[in-house]
Amino acid sequence: MHVEMPKKGALASVRAFAGEYAMIVVSILTALALEHGAQSWHHSHRAHEAQVNIEVEIRTNLEQVRASMRKNDVELANLKALREVLRQGIIDKVDGEQLVRQMNEATKNKFGINQSIPTLRREAWEVAVASQSVSWMEPALVQRYAGAYSFQRDFSRDAISAVQLVLDAPALLKKAADMEFGSVDSAGIYYSVTQLQASLRATQGSLSELENELVRALPKT
Prior knowledge:
Layout: H1 8-92, H2 96-107, H3 123-130, H4 139-166, H5 169-180, H6 186-217
Helix pairs in contact: 1-2, 1-3, 1-6, 4-6, 5-6
Protein backbone atom coordinates (compact mmCIF):
# COMPACT_ATOMS: atom_id res chain seq x y z
CA MET A 1 0.00 0.00 0.00
CA HIS A 2 1.27 3.38 -0.95
CA VAL A 3 0.53 6.35 1.36
CA GLU A 4 1.13 9.82 0.01
CA MET A 5 2.14 12.35 2.68
CA PRO A 6 0.57 15.83 2.49
CA LYS A 7 2.74 18.53 1.14
CA LYS A 8 4.13 21.10 3.54
CA GLY A 9 2.59 23.93 1.53
CA ALA A 10 -0.93 22.55 1.95
CA LEU A 11 -0.46 22.07 5.71
CA ALA A 12 0.69 25.64 6.06
CA SER A 13 -2.40 26.82 4.16
CA VAL A 14 -4.70 24.90 6.53
CA ARG A 15 -2.98 26.41 9.54
CA ALA A 16 -3.22 29.90 8.08
CA PHE A 17 -6.94 29.39 7.33
CA ALA A 18 -7.57 28.10 10.85
CA GLY A 19 -5.74 31.09 12.29
CA GLU A 20 -7.71 33.54 10.17
CA TYR A 21 -10.98 31.76 11.03
CA ALA A 22 -10.17 31.94 14.74
CA MET A 23 -9.41 35.66 14.42
CA ILE A 24 -12.73 36.25 12.67
CA VAL A 25 -14.63 34.34 15.36
CA VAL A 26 -12.84 36.22 18.12
CA SER A 27 -13.55 39.53 16.38
CA ILE A 28 -17.26 38.70 16.07
CA LEU A 29 -17.51 37.58 19.69
CA THR A 30 -15.67 40.71 20.83
CA ALA A 31 -17.98 42.93 18.79
CA LEU A 32 -21.05 41.18 20.21
CA ALA A 33 -19.72 41.50 23.75
CA LEU A 34 -18.99 45.19 23.24
CA GLU A 35 -22.44 45.75 21.76
CA HIS A 36 -24.08 43.88 24.63
CA GLY A 37 -22.06 45.88 27.14
CA ALA A 38 -23.00 49.15 25.44
CA GLN A 39 -26.68 48.17 25.38
CA SER A 40 -26.59 47.14 29.04
CA TRP A 41 -24.92 50.42 30.00
CA HIS A 42 -27.48 52.36 27.97
CA HIS A 43 -30.43 50.56 29.56
CA SER A 44 -28.91 50.89 33.03
CA HIS A 45 -28.35 54.60 32.45
CA ARG A 46 -31.95 55.05 31.25
CA ALA A 47 -33.24 53.09 34.24
CA HIS A 48 -31.19 55.23 36.66
CA GLU A 49 -32.42 58.42 35.00
CA ALA A 50 -36.02 57.19 35.21
CA GLN A 51 -35.53 56.26 38.86
CA VAL A 52 -34.25 59.75 39.69
CA ASN A 53 -37.20 61.37 37.88
CA ILE A 54 -39.72 59.09 39.59
CA GLU A 55 -38.34 59.82 43.05
CA VAL A 56 -38.35 63.56 42.38
CA GLU A 57 -41.98 63.25 41.28
CA ILE A 58 -42.94 61.21 44.35
CA ARG A 59 -41.24 63.75 46.65
CA THR A 60 -43.15 66.55 44.92
CA ASN A 61 -46.42 64.66 45.41
CA LEU A 62 -45.52 64.04 49.03
CA GLU A 63 -45.01 67.78 49.57
CA GLN A 64 -48.40 68.44 47.96
CA VAL A 65 -50.09 65.88 50.19
CA ARG A 66 -48.58 67.36 53.34
CA ALA A 67 -49.48 70.90 52.25
CA SER A 68 -53.10 69.82 51.75
CA MET A 69 -53.14 68.13 55.15
CA ARG A 70 -51.90 71.32 56.82
CA LYS A 71 -54.59 73.41 55.09
CA ASN A 72 -57.27 70.90 56.07
CA ASP A 73 -56.08 70.94 59.68
CA VAL A 74 -56.55 74.71 59.74
CA GLU A 75 -60.02 74.32 58.24
CA LEU A 76 -60.94 71.67 60.79
CA ALA A 77 -59.93 74.04 63.58
CA ASN A 78 -62.11 76.77 62.04
CA LEU A 79 -65.04 74.38 61.74
CA LYS A 80 -64.64 73.34 65.35
CA ALA A 81 -64.82 76.99 66.42
CA LEU A 82 -67.79 77.59 64.12
CA ARG A 83 -69.63 74.58 65.42
CA GLU A 84 -69.17 75.77 69.00
CA VAL A 85 -70.50 79.23 68.07
CA LEU A 86 -73.53 77.65 66.42
CA ARG A 87 -74.18 75.28 69.27
CA GLN A 88 -74.02 78.07 71.82
CA GLY A 89 -76.09 80.36 69.60
CA ILE A 90 -78.82 77.74 69.27
CA ILE A 91 -78.83 77.19 73.05
CA ASP A 92 -78.93 80.94 73.76
CA LYS A 93 -81.43 81.59 70.92
CA VAL A 94 -79.25 84.29 69.40
CA ASP A 95 -80.98 86.25 66.64
CA GLY A 96 -79.89 85.76 63.02
CA GLU A 97 -77.97 88.99 62.48
CA GLN A 98 -75.92 88.61 65.63
CA LEU A 99 -75.26 84.94 64.91
CA VAL A 100 -74.02 85.80 61.42
CA ARG A 101 -71.53 88.26 62.94
CA GLN A 102 -70.33 85.61 65.38
CA MET A 103 -69.98 83.02 62.62
CA ASN A 104 -68.05 85.42 60.39
CA GLU A 105 -65.70 86.21 63.28
CA ALA A 106 -65.17 82.50 63.95
CA THR A 107 -64.44 81.71 60.27
CA LYS A 108 -62.79 85.04 59.32
CA ASN A 109 -65.58 85.52 56.75
CA LYS A 110 -64.62 82.30 54.95
CA PHE A 111 -67.55 80.02 55.63
CA GLY A 112 -67.93 77.48 52.82
CA ILE A 113 -66.45 74.35 51.33
CA ASN A 114 -62.71 74.78 51.90
CA GLN A 115 -61.25 71.34 51.39
CA SER A 116 -57.76 70.90 49.95
CA ILE A 117 -57.17 68.01 47.55
CA PRO A 118 -53.58 67.76 46.21
CA THR A 119 -52.73 67.63 42.53
CA LEU A 120 -50.73 64.41 42.09
CA ARG A 121 -48.36 63.97 39.14
CA ARG A 122 -47.50 60.67 37.45
CA GLU A 123 -45.77 61.70 34.21
CA ALA A 124 -42.33 60.35 35.21
CA TRP A 125 -43.79 56.94 36.03
CA GLU A 126 -45.78 56.76 32.79
CA VAL A 127 -42.69 57.69 30.75
CA ALA A 128 -40.63 55.02 32.51
CA VAL A 129 -43.29 52.40 31.79
CA ALA A 130 -43.71 53.46 28.16
CA SER A 131 -39.94 53.40 27.53
CA GLN A 132 -39.62 50.06 29.37
CA SER A 133 -37.00 51.60 31.66
CA VAL A 134 -38.76 49.96 34.61
CA SER A 135 -37.80 46.53 33.23
CA TRP A 136 -34.14 47.32 34.06
CA MET A 137 -34.87 48.34 37.64
CA GLU A 138 -34.77 46.12 40.71
CA PRO A 139 -38.12 44.26 41.04
CA ALA A 140 -38.54 45.35 44.67
CA LEU A 141 -38.03 48.99 43.62
CA VAL A 142 -40.56 48.72 40.82
CA GLN A 143 -43.05 47.13 43.22
CA ARG A 144 -42.73 50.06 45.64
CA TYR A 145 -43.16 52.62 42.87
CA ALA A 146 -46.12 50.77 41.37
CA GLY A 147 -47.79 50.56 44.79
CA ALA A 148 -47.40 54.30 45.38
CA TYR A 149 -48.75 55.30 41.97
CA SER A 150 -51.61 52.82 42.26
CA PHE A 151 -52.56 54.34 45.62
CA GLN A 152 -52.35 57.81 44.06
CA ARG A 153 -54.70 56.78 41.27
CA ASP A 154 -57.22 55.32 43.69
CA PHE A 155 -57.06 58.40 45.92
CA SER A 156 -57.60 60.82 43.03
CA ARG A 157 -60.53 58.74 41.79
CA ASP A 158 -62.19 58.25 45.18
CA ALA A 159 -61.51 61.57 46.92
CA ILE A 160 -64.19 63.57 45.11
CA SER A 161 -66.67 60.70 45.35
CA ALA A 162 -66.14 60.50 49.11
CA VAL A 163 -66.75 64.25 49.49
CA GLN A 164 -69.94 64.02 47.44
CA LEU A 165 -71.11 61.04 49.48
CA VAL A 166 -70.70 62.74 52.86
CA LEU A 167 -71.41 66.37 51.97
CA ASP A 168 -74.61 67.96 50.66
CA ALA A 169 -72.76 70.70 48.80
CA PRO A 170 -75.78 72.43 47.15
CA ALA A 171 -77.53 72.79 50.50
CA LEU A 172 -74.39 74.18 52.13
CA LEU A 173 -73.84 76.72 49.36
CA LYS A 174 -77.46 77.84 49.66
CA LYS A 175 -77.06 78.35 53.41
CA ALA A 176 -73.84 80.30 52.85
CA ALA A 177 -75.65 82.54 50.35
CA ASP A 178 -78.56 83.05 52.76
CA MET A 179 -76.09 84.20 55.42
CA GLU A 180 -75.07 87.12 53.19
CA PHE A 181 -78.60 88.46 53.50
CA GLY A 182 -78.81 87.87 57.25
CA SER A 183 -81.00 84.80 56.98
CA VAL A 184 -79.70 82.02 59.20
CA ASP A 185 -81.00 78.48 59.57
CA SER A 186 -78.98 77.74 62.70
CA ALA A 187 -79.81 74.05 62.94
CA GLY A 188 -79.35 73.52 59.19
CA ILE A 189 -75.95 75.21 59.18
CA TYR A 190 -74.96 73.21 62.26
CA TYR A 191 -75.73 69.98 60.40
CA SER A 192 -73.81 71.23 57.34
CA VAL A 193 -70.79 72.05 59.50
CA THR A 194 -70.97 68.55 60.97
CA GLN A 195 -70.99 67.17 57.42
CA LEU A 196 -67.99 69.31 56.51
CA GLN A 197 -66.07 68.04 59.50
CA ALA A 198 -66.85 64.42 58.64
CA SER A 199 -65.85 64.97 55.02
CA LEU A 200 -62.59 66.66 55.99
CA ARG A 201 -61.70 63.97 58.50
CA ALA A 202 -62.30 61.29 55.86
CA THR A 203 -60.08 63.20 53.43
CA GLN A 204 -57.38 63.62 56.07
CA GLY A 205 -57.46 59.88 56.77
CA SER A 206 -57.02 59.08 53.07
CA LEU A 207 -54.24 61.66 52.76
CA SER A 208 -52.46 60.16 55.75
CA GLU A 209 -52.56 56.71 54.14
CA LEU A 210 -51.29 58.17 50.86
CA GLU A 211 -48.49 59.97 52.72
CA ASN A 212 -47.36 56.67 54.27
CA GLU A 213 -47.43 54.94 50.88
CA LEU A 214 -45.34 57.67 49.22
CA VAL A 215 -42.81 57.63 52.08
CA ARG A 216 -42.57 53.84 51.75
CA ALA A 217 -41.77 54.17 48.04
CA LEU A 218 -38.78 56.43 48.67
CA PRO A 219 -35.30 55.32 49.84
CA LYS A 220 -34.99 55.26 53.62
CA THR A 221 -31.97 57.55 53.40
